[in-house]
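ARCHIVE CARD
Drawer: 12
Card no.: 0347
Subject: one protein chain, sequence and derived structure
Cross-reference: see card 0346
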Amino acid sequence: MRSGILLALLFVGAARAQDAAAPPPAAVNSEKASDVPDPEKLRISSEALKRMGQVLKDVLGKLEEARNTKDVVKLNCVNEKLTQVKGLLRISEQSDVALQEAVAKRESSASNHEFTKVTIAKGKIEQLRAESEECIGQLAFRTDENLTVEVEVPDDLPAGDPSIPQLPHIIFSRPPPASPTL
């Protein structure tokens, strides 16, 4: 069920990218999947799987780092990215096997389809790696109770507190009437 959802997300992302008149997500060096020769597809797919495996290791390292900080927010954020990476990697491995079969059977449309799935997944996984790094760094601004801050006030600042409004001037005499009939 979960892999079906991830697969659907892959295709929705591909459709959006093509609808936006952007180059196809399967573009390798600005080429369409159909322009890439089959042996090259196999090589690129294999390299993409190796890179995705490395990203999985990186995200696992971020998960361990989040565990060590004992920050539940960071841990949940990285864990969510890790789950997505694992799902995309599983789909990519299945697509790589299907790509090898399609190339062996000389089925160009099937090989193009599987190659496209692998390249889209690689891009998504790279994005998830960056997001997992953001998870770890997102709460870096939190302070600890022992932190002290020294503030230097420039000498040329105006005196007074601008957050306290000044009272309006008191009118001691009433101005003359605006019309002589009063």
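Annotation on reverse: Residues 1-30 have pLDDT under 50 and may be disordered. The helical segments are 2-19, 38-69, 72-105, 108-137.
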